[in-house]
Amino acid sequence: MLIAYRSIAAGLAVIFFLLISLPAKAVEVKEVTSPGGIKAWLVEEPSIPIVSMNVAWRGGASLDPADKAGLAYLASSTMDEGAGDLDSKAFQERLSDLAIKLSFDASKDSFSGSLKTLSENTEEAFRLFGLAITDPRFDEEPVERIRGQILASLNRKLSDPNSLAGRAWFELAFEDHPYAQPSEGTIETMTAVTRDDLAKFARTRLGKNNMLIGVVGDISAEELGLLLDKTFGALPEKAENSIVPQTVPLSEAAVKIIPQDIPQSVVVFGGQGVKREDPDYYAAYVLNYILGGGSFQSRLTEEIREKRGLVYSVYSYLYPMKAAGLQMGGFGTSNASVREALDLVEAELGRVRADGVTTEELAAAKTYLNGSFPLSLSSNDRIADILVAMQFSNLPIDYLNDRSDLINAVSEDDIRRVAQKLLDPDKLIVVVAGKPENLEAKGKGVEKN
Amino acid sequence: MSPMRPLFVFVLTFGLIFGGSPEKLFAEESIPTLFDPKVTTLDNGLQVVVLEDHRAPVVTHMVWYKAGAADEKPLKSGIAHFLEHLMFKGTKTLQLGEFSEVVAENGGQENAFTSQDYTAYFQNVSVDKLPLFMEMEADRMANLVLTDEVVAPELKVVLEERSQRTDNDPAALFGEQFEAAQFLAHPYGAPVIGWRHEIESLTTQDALDWYNTYYAPNNAILIVAGDVEADEVFALAEKYYGPIASKKIPVRERVQEPPQLAKRVLEMSDKRVRQPSWRQSYLAPSARGEDQVNVRALEVLSQILGSGVTSRIYDGLVVDKKIATSAGAYYRSGSYDKSTFVLYGSPTPDHNLDDVETAIHAIIEDVIENGVTDKELTRAKKKLLADAIYARDSIRGAANILGSSLASGETIDQIVNWPRNIAKVTAEDVQNAAKAVFDERQSVVGRLLPEQVKS
């Protein structure tokens, strides 16, 4: 697949043409299928002697049992602490001696691994990655050491207003659904995870059927094909489970206040959004940019920061999870201004639902979203992320080619329609950590006695 | 279809890594330079640095002013950062907000940042937009317009920024106190964002004074990195930045520290602190104008002592003795004046801050006494050299490294030869650097504790 970047020369001086390297630049994404049938998306980039690989498994922390929330996260933090014949120290020393970067992570919808190596060590780097996922040791020493670090971090978060507000928001929005539970778990659930749980996690949650691989760098399709079999061949064909049950966020207004003795209240707001597979996703994406997605150019920033100086930062974003679509946002403001800033957010949400956006705003948003996209393809690491994200969202391999057309096709009518699917000021779920003045808890945010 | 990499190459590589002698591994001719920048200086004094990288049709355009918080006058802390915010407000030809509007409309991403030693502005854009952004950045180098109406709400924004970054977080507040104790006289003792009471009284005139004093081509570095050819960038720079007149810039001489003869110990308790932590920082040389061997040796030392899980401090305190949940060391050579070498750790529930301090000091004493092993030295150098190669993956990261190093007074030579100079460091250099830097009298100890806990 080829992506051609159009060079927009209108209105620019002649000298520009000198700057444009012709023919137009391309990112070529290949699908590589190993002799053993394992697929990966690859972008070859031989100009720097490094190789980056990202791998994701569908599922993630939302599949953790409620009383063992944090299982996937603890697995992600200990999977690189010894595998095969190598104990924790030996494994880490091998990585260190070869300057290989290997790490794992768990989010609500996926478990992921990333690898970065000098290309001279590619084979050994892949071997270590493969050992970690297929034969992790989870020895007592490293598991308890890492658990201790996570518990210390969880303890710290009990007085961190950003973490408190974020966690409380998901508890409020999803009540009994696993999306309510934090990926890192709580002190109690993190303590309950056993080494057997970790071993079972590795055996059952990482399968070939729920695996997505993206590779970028100084490696050929043939080399990668052979390495894929060596690295992933020993994984089970199927993961036990990789599907999170569908849900929707709470659909009534709620305000929860978490008292914290701090000068600035941290506010998280959100509610219904769209999922990535929704045909209205692109309209929602453009609308969100206009509302609160652009760094300096957004309605929320204009009203709340630029005109009134109430915040340093205010933003909104789409959070399209596999089992629920959300639109969320946040800001920090002095305790005295929380009410005023929230009123402004609600007014802007109402204005978008009632009146849509202007022709000029829509045009400017499209220019920005299309014009800035190539910026995200400027490092191998980022491209590897994107390759996995595309597969995760079931996008076609030539999506990068189609993306600008999909965005350009969004009409003012689309925007008006999708506005009804996004945040409703009358159903806003709000969590505030701080000492907000003139603000009361509301709906399910009221503490039960 | 390209052939598989032949097996013997892999074997050779493997052999080099495990069997090769350090001397061979770090032979100068085999080590690439950090980057390959092309440099020129315009007649008006603007230094222009170009990094060519043709992987994607994008470019990073940055202007770095050699003026940061440490150049502020007394009672005006925060003015460098405040002016950074105000640079987005408008010029003689651009209305309020128009700068960012044009950037966004052209698919650009922009921002700015301020440190003790510099203030930098950047746009990441599709390469065909470079001339437009050069024109706009050059415009605000010379033609900024500020009125009380636009300055007043921005001052509130900066105060909220301070709340968000610092006042809401006891660890950040303690960090500020710690730096103030480390630098009694030198302006590094004041936070970049400024003390709240001083920010509150900053005026439009203060901002204009700062701008008029420091914003000039001969006090700036232009960095362009991406899908460009150096000669074309030089021509564009001449066209857009060339006409701006240079200014007489004040000599960069900050108040220097009096000799530190006494160790300083700070302790803070706060109910929002839930995990105690310890740190100790030692005054250390920075790269500018100092003994290069010593500075590079300190970088290797910080790697061996405290970077990553195989480092001595992590391995000793966290893995082996279970004294700390986290522990390490860091050193940043890139500051205009003196820097610091920092050790840190946070105890496990069964231990306290004194245990952490005692265990880390034992490791330091061992290094001073017995030096470091060849294995440690080799591993640290390989890691740093690999970092130099990894750094080439990010165009923006590379531009940042170049800009911050140059604005902190390092030379292009020092920057590009960094990997070679790292490769030359010997075990003896590392031991000597440790002996020199770990002077207890020239240190500050910080103890951050939960409320009502005695340790």
Poorly predicted ranges of chain B (pLDDT <50, ≥5 residues)? 1-23
Give average pLDDT of chain A, whole number: 92
| Series of H and E elements of chain B | HHEEEHHEEHHHHHEHEEHHEEHHHHHHE
Measured as a percent range, the helix fraction of chain A is 25-40%
The H-level CATH homologous superfamily of the largest domain in chain A, spelled out, is Metalloenzyme, LuxS/M16 peptidase-like
Q: Rough shape of chain A?
A: globular
Largest interface: A-B, 89 and 88 residues
- What strand order characterises the main sheet of chain B? 1-2-6-3-5-4
Radius of gyration of chain A: 24 Å
Q: Distance between the terminal alpha carbons of chain A, to the nearest Å?
A: 60 Å
The CATH topology assignment of the largest domain in chain B is Cytochrome Bc1 Complex, Chain A, domain 1
CATH class of the largest domain in chain A: Alpha Beta
Shape of chain B: globular
Listing every helix as H and every strand as E from the N terminus to the C terminus, the arrangement of chain A reads: HEEEHHEEHHHHHEHEEHHEEHHHHHE
Tell me the name of the CATH homologous superfamily of the largest domain in chain B: Metalloenzyme, LuxS/M16 peptidase-like
Q: Would you count the extended β strands of chain B for me?
A: 11
Task: Report what the structure shows.
The complex is a heterodimer of chains A (449) and B (455). In chain A, α10 packs across α13 (359-371). Chain A is 40% helix and 18% strand. With 449 residues, chain A is an alpha+beta fold. Chain A contains 16 helices and 11 strands. A 6-stranded mixed β-sheet of chain A has the order 1-2-6-3-5-4, sandwiched between helices. Chain A folds into 2 domains: 30-232, Metalloenzyme, LuxS/M16 peptidase-like (Cytochrome Bc1 Complex, Chain A, domain 1, 2-Layer Sandwich); 254-445, Metalloenzyme, LuxS/M16 peptidase-like (Cytochrome Bc1 Complex, Chain A, domain 1, 2-Layer Sandwich), CATH 3.30.830.10. The N and C termini of chain A lie far apart (60 Å). Chain B is built from 18 helices and 11 strands. With 455 residues, chain B is α+β, with helices and mostly antiparallel strands. Chain B has helices at residues 7-19, 22-25, 79-86, 98-105, 130-142, 148-167, 170-182, 196-200, 204-214, 230-240, 292-306, 312-320, 353-370, 374-390, 395-407, 412-416, 418-424, 427-437, and strands at 38-41, 47-52, 58-65, 109-114, 119-126, 220-226, 264-270, 277-284, 324-331, 339-347, 443-450. The N and C termini of chain B lie far apart (65 Å). Chain B has 2 domains: 38-240, Cytochrome Bc1 Complex, Chain A, domain 1 (2-Layer Sandwich); 264-450, Metalloenzyme, LuxS/M16 peptidase-like (Cytochrome Bc1 Complex, Chain A, domain 1), CATH 3.30.830.10. Chain B is globular and about 65 Å long. The longest helix of chain B is centred in the middle third of the chain and has 20 residues, at 148-167. In chain B, α11 crosses α14 and α13 (353-370) crosses α18. Chains A and B meet through α1, α3, α5, α9 and α11 of A and α1, α4, β4, β5 and α5 of B.
